[in-house]
Design goal:
The complex is a heterotrimer. Helices cover 78% and strands 2% of the residues of chain A. Chain A contains 23 helices and two strands. Chain A is globular, with a radius of gyration of 22 Å. By secondary structure, chain B is mostly helical. Chain B has one domain (6-138). In chain B, α2 runs parallel beside α5 (114-138). The longest helix of chain B is centred in the C-terminal third of the chain and has 25 residues, at 114-138. Chain C has one domain (2-50, 65-98). Chain C has helices at residues 2-20, 25-46, 67-98. In chain C, α2 (25-46) runs antiparallel to α3. Chain C is elongated. Classes of the chains: A mainly alpha, B mainly alpha, C mainly alpha. Chain A: This is Na+/H+ antiporter subunit D. Chain A: It is found in: Cell membrane; Membrane.
Chain lengths: 494, 141, 112
């Protein structure tokens, strides 16, 4: 029992509640949310340190012992995700100070920002399937409100679809929970894993597994279910789009990895091959979408889809090396993708558009912006020595070892096309003659815009340069989640 | 056109108080019997909506100068802080404590920490329900 | 009894899917509401129906129904209440901003 594990969920929740009361004091709101976010970063560093050195932490809410009560479980994977959430949350918060219209702050931007983080952290830390549903809903309801922020007709239209899709997915989630509860009589994930392993009827479990895959795939933008993503992520302001692009789909991916390494491991020939096929299709069609677009934010949105494919590919291969690669990839992706969306926001602030064909020549006027973007872009495409390279390398190596040559070929091709479309952005936006007059951009100070992005770019360089220790860490995480008994023992036997 | 809904007004004056007191009853009954913060809150929201429907909005606003968004925030804070007080005793979040007290006139009464938690839920539910209804209702352009 | 409940749930979900596929923005919201009702019924049924057993009221009950599904459904109802409230406001605002409740017109292919 350790109440440290509660803090990543409770601190933002309480902060959001208090900030509702302070809606008419924008300055207090800004200062206090910055302080709280920094505190959260420190808490999550402490949490990761405690768990890495001391093993899995659990908290039994309301002192009801599992499997009857709800437990929060923090293992290395979950605490790593919590840390990444705090990093991205801090960067996007500071970016929103620079770009968010002042009038919008009155409409509960900060409270819902923190409620969103509550939902995200809760989804990472919970050890109960129904509680996962509840935290998903906390996250989604806040995301509904953040995505419609500003209320332009475009946003209203696309958020409506986003909301309907997600609510439908939540309905399916409940169906899956009903199946699992009917079959196993429990909702505690560790206890479900025990029950499933002892069960003779695997058909029902496979049905529930596929239902959950559909649900999480819908939230995580897997192959046939990604159609909502590019349009809805195009609408909101850059700070929110960066937070969503970095985090929200990854919550779905986290849930897939968690359930398919803990619970549904009895029939990997069936489930994990489906996952692998979906991974290949997801990355291929996602990158094709990116290649065909000529809009900064839309290209990035399609790249989210194609990269979700890499993470799921690691799960589909289901070897320690592949999972370590997938975990490394998640860390790399969350940081780089948020940075790129913030770059899109910065260029939008400078040029007033996100259409690539209307921009050019920013390299001459804003060299710092250009080169920082270049680093992030080639990191995304997987050029050594940046972080994208090592994670993809592990995944591809594992694919070759397993003899899954089709997925290896697809992922190499997708890497090439990723590089192509990132270079397309670089060429259109930064090369050529300057499209702006000095008077157009002189009033926009570049440094405050870049300040929140620089740490993210520095992190991707660090993740690449210190690949060795970080890869060892990812292998530790992969070993932990590949052995469900560690998790089960930590939860059920105290 | 200003119409005078005599029947509606008369009925509302009586019925709304019955609903309001029933909602308070449901709220307190919730610990060991059907009821609770959510149901009581919905019932109270129903009574308030009835008031808003039968009398016009500005008048009710004068009588009940409540900011429902503040109410939601307050409810959340009450609920979270109730859960947090168990941390003081070193127990996990949301641990419930209860004891029996002898009160004058009322005899033995069970008091639990679930009650303030439910009060928080109650406030949030009333706030959310009325806020979403009034948001649409106020928008007459 | 189980068969009847499953069939009822199935019919409700069928209606929900039909409504979700209509072109009217408001009917889709009704579809979402119906879907959540059907799913709640399904939870209750799949968790097992007990005949003649009341909910757990006292500590020494001989027969009782499993209270957990009821708690789950209550939670799910609370959530769907919040989501529906939000969705109604959103549908209303969308309808007002675009001056149309036809989802075919709200596809938004024109501005790609």
């Amino acid at each position: 029992m350790s109440n440290l594990l509660l803090l990543p969920v409770l601190v933002p929740f309480l902060a959001g509640a208090v900030l509702i009361l302070l809606r008419n004091h924008p300055l207090i709101q800004r200062v206090s949310s910055a302080v709280i976010m920094t505190v959260m970063l420190l808490i999550s560093i402490q949490l990761l340190y405690t768990i890495t050195t001391g093993g899995i932490l659990t908290v039994e809410l309301g002192n009801w012992s599992p499997p009857f009560g709800i437990v929060l479980v923090g293992d290395m994977f979950a605490s790593m995700m919590v840390l990444l959430t705090s990093i991205v949350g801090l960067a996007c918060l500071f970016f929103s100070f620079q770009t968010m219209a002042r009038i919008r702050e009155k409409f509960f931007f900060y409270p819902f920002y923190f409620f969103l983080l509550t939902g995200v952290n809760g989804s990472f830390l919970t050890g109960d399937l129904f509680n996962l549903f509840v935290f998903f809903e906390v996250m989604l309801i806040s995301s509904f409100i953040l995505i419609v922020f500003g209320g332009t007709p475009y946003q209203l239209r696309e958020s409506y679809k986003y909301v309907v899709i997600n609510v439908f997915a939540s309905g399916l989630f409940l169906v899956a929970i009903a199946f699992i509860y009917g079959a196993t009589g429990t909702l505690n994930m560790a206890h479900i894993a025990v029950q499933v392993a002892e069960m003779e009827q695997q058909g029902v479990i496979n049905v529930a597994a596929i239902l959950l895959l559909i649900v999480f795939g819908m939230k995580g933008a897997l192959f046939p279910l990604y159609f909502w993503l590019p349009k809805s992520y195009y609408g909101p302001p850059a700070a929110i789009a960066a937070l969503f692009g970095g985090l929200l789909t990854k919550v779905g991916i986290y849930a897939i990895i968690r359930t398919f390494t803990l619970i549904f491991v009895h029939d990997t020939a069936f489930t994990h091959n489906i996952i692998l096929a979906l991974a290949g299709l997801t990355m291929f069609f996602g990158v094709l979408g990116a290649v065909s677009q000529f809009d900064f934010k839309r290209i990035l949105s399609y790249h989210i889809i194609s990269q979700v494919g890499y993470m799921v590919m690691g799960l589909g291969l289901f070897t320690p090396l592949a999972l370590a690669g997938a975990i490394y990839y998640i860390a790399h992706h969350i940081i780089v993708k948020s940075a790129l969306f913030l770059f899109a926001g910065a260029t939008q602030k400078i040029t007033g558009t996100t259409d690539l064909k209307k921009m050019s020549g920013l390299l001459k006027t804003h060299p710092a912006l250009a080169w920082l973007f270049f680093i992030s872009a080639i990191s995304l495409a997987g050029i050594p020595p940046l972080s994208g390279f090592f994670s993809k390398f592990a995944l591809i190596l594992s694919g070759v070892e397993e003899g899954r040559y089709i997925i290896v070929a697809v992922s190499l091709l997708v890497g090439l096309l990723t590089l192509f479309s990132m270079m397309k952005i670089f060429i259109y936006v930064f090369w050529g003659g300057p499209s702006l007059k000095r008077s157009d951009y002189a009033h926009i100070k570049l440094l405050p815009l870049l300040a929140p992005i620089i740490p993210l770019v520095a992190l991707t360089i660090t993740l690449g340069l210190f690949a060795e220790p970080i890869f060892v860490f990812s292998e530790g995480v992969a070993a932990e989640i590949l052995d469900p008994s560690i998790y089960i023992d930590a939860v059920l036997e105290e | 056109m200003k119409t005078n809904f005599v029947m509606l007004h008369t009925v509302t004056r009586i019925v709304s108080f019955i609903i309001l007191s029933f909602s308070v009853y449901l709220f307190f009954a919730g610990h060991n019997a059907p009821g609770g913060g959510f149901i009581g809150g919905l019932m109270m929201a129903g009574a308030l909506v009835l008031l808003y429907v039968s009398f016009d909005m500005d008048r009710i606003k004068k009588v009940l100068p409540i900011d429902y968004t503040q109410m939601i925030g307050l409810g959340l804070i009450i609920a979270i802080l109730t859960g947090l007080n168990s941390l003081v005793f070193g127990d996990p979040f949301l641990t419930q404590y209860f004891d029996y007290f002898q009160w004058p006139f009322m005899g033995e009464v069970e008091l639990t920490t679930a009650l303030p938690f439910d009060l928080g839920i109650f406030l949030v539910v009333v706030g959310v329900a009325l806020l979403s209804i009034l948001t649409i209702a106020e928008d007459v352009s | 009894m189980e068969i009847l409940m499953i069939l009822t749930g199935g019919i409700i979900i069928t209606v929900a899917v039909y409504l979700l596929m209509t072109r009217s923005i408001l009917r889709v919201v009704f579809g979402i509401i119906m879907l959540s009702h059907g799913v709640h019924l399904l939870i209750l049924t799949l968790a097992g129906l007990e005949e003649g057993a009341p909910p757990l009221l006292t500590e020494n009950a001989d027969a009782y129904t499993d209270p957990l599904p009821q708690a789950l459904i209550l939670t799910a109802i609370v959530i769907s209440f919040g989501v529906t409230a939000f969705l109604l406001v959103l549908a209303y605002q969308t309808n007002k901003a675009h001056d149309s409740d036809d989802l075919e017109e709200l596809r938004g292919n024109a501005d790609e």
